[in-house]
Amino acid sequence: MSQPTAPPGYDDRNPLYPPPAGGYHAGHPGGYPQPPPYGGAYPQPGGYPQPGYPQPEGYPRPGGYPQPVPPMPTVPMNFGDDYGGSGGGVPIQITDWDDKKVRHTFIRKVYSIISLQLLVTVAIVAVFTFVDPVSTFVRRNIAVYYSSYAVFLVTYLVLVCCEGPRRRFPWNLILLSVFTLAMGFMTGTIASAHNTKAVLLAMLITAIVSITVTIFCFQTKVDFTSCTGLFCVLGIVVMVTGIITAIVLSFKYIYWLHMLYAAIGAIAFTLFLAYDTQLVLGNRKHSISPEEYVYGALKIYTDIVYIFTFLLQIVGSRD
Asked: Where is the composition biased (Pro residues) (predicted)?
């Protein structure tokens, strides 16, 4: 009996009538013949090499085809350019954001203290200037000035040189309050020796200069804190000039020398105000620690008061 040369018809493959045990094709026992090989140089299915992917053991491969393996991601996941509100595709830096919040809180605290100090000082100056009995008493008793100067110098040195009292609450605020009162009495005593118009004009110019310098320091890219050595030299020049002027004026009053020293002092402390303001603002080469809010307020307040006293000497004196 000859073997058929083609697969049986559809009816012969009915599962109710299984194929004979010998199969329909010699060499393919119990099944149908394999499809013809692929044309070209492609290997037979099921014979692909698997580079780098070991085959799982224990599971048969139906038909010899490999199971698909999901690829590993090669690019990190991104949540978008504005994720978290950073904007511009720049990721949020939690540390930087915390530092900015701390610095902003520090700036508000410093300028709140300065505002209270200036209010107290202006009130004392107003009493010493506009109340005639007080003004007359202060001018006749110079000991008030020297006593307030001694308190000012002691509290200033303690706050500047001693880090413990400067950072320890409530001693830092107590010392700062005593310092503010002492400097207010000093300024009021100086103002009592000048006429009312000169005091008001000096206050107005001081306010304009202080606000202008503060706004300039907020906006400018010039870093005054990088010129620390220059400001040290400037401070030494002002101190030496003041000593020489005091010695010369104690023997003979020289108007132009007095005005020259007052002008140098006003310019120098305006620059010091810019320097100390940038120390408080931060984001410069040098900055004040957020824990030093008393020290920051002390520096800026002192600069403003010295600008006022030097301008007061330039504007005029009591007749």
From this structure: 46-71
Is the CB of residue 254 less than 8 Å from the CB of residue 261?
no
Overall pTM > 0.90:
no
Contact, 292 vs 165, CB < 8 A? no
Instruction: List the one residue out of 226, 280, 295 whose CA is nearest residue 103.
Output: 280
123, 303, 312: which is closest to 214 by C-alpha?
303
Domain ranges of the chain: 95-315
* Pair 159, 175: CB distance under 8 Å: yes
Residue with tokens 């700062």: 176
- Please tell me the distance from the alpha carbon of residue 221 to that of residue 203, in angstroms, as a whole number: 29
Q: Which two tokens stand for residue 9?
A: 């018809």
Closest to 125 in 3D by CA, of 148, 158, 150, 108: 148
What is the per-residue burial (b if ≥16 Cβ within 10 Å, else e) of 87-119?
Answer: eeeeeeeeeeeeeeeebeebbeebbebbeebbe
